[in-house]
Hints:
Layout: H1 25-29, E1 43-46, H2 54-58, E2 63-71, E3 77-84, H3 90-98, E4 102-104, E5 106-107, E6 113-114, E7 116-124
Antiparallel strand pairs: 1-4, 2-3, 2-7, 5-6
Amino acid sequence: MARLLLVALALSGSFLALPGSSQTKSEDSKLAKPGVNGVTVPTCVYCPAPRYTDEARKAKLEGAVVIRAVVTVEGRADNVSVVKGLGSGLDEKAVEVVRTWRFKPAHNSDGHPVAVSVPMEIIFRLDHLRTTPVSF
Length: 136
């Protein structure tokens, strides 16, 4: 049975959303920026791996889907959009699973939870099932 590798949940402010994403610049400007002015980075506490589609498995497709999402003060992913996709249904599977993830929200310098927009990289591999942390 094919397995996948969910390598990284890359939470940093280094990616920009592509034009046409569901998030506008005005919405983004209202959000705190992780790593800036004492704002922490959210941490995923429930992160099940996405499933392969039959089409992607048959094509032996592997690679990364980059997602951008707002992690809310309640620790849920909102405004989830694909920044860089793979196709063959894997983009949709990545979005679908990220919407089920639960996070410890980011906090401001006063310790209050804040919403932040963050990129998340989901790497699909057919031969492994392993999670590797990302260093910032």
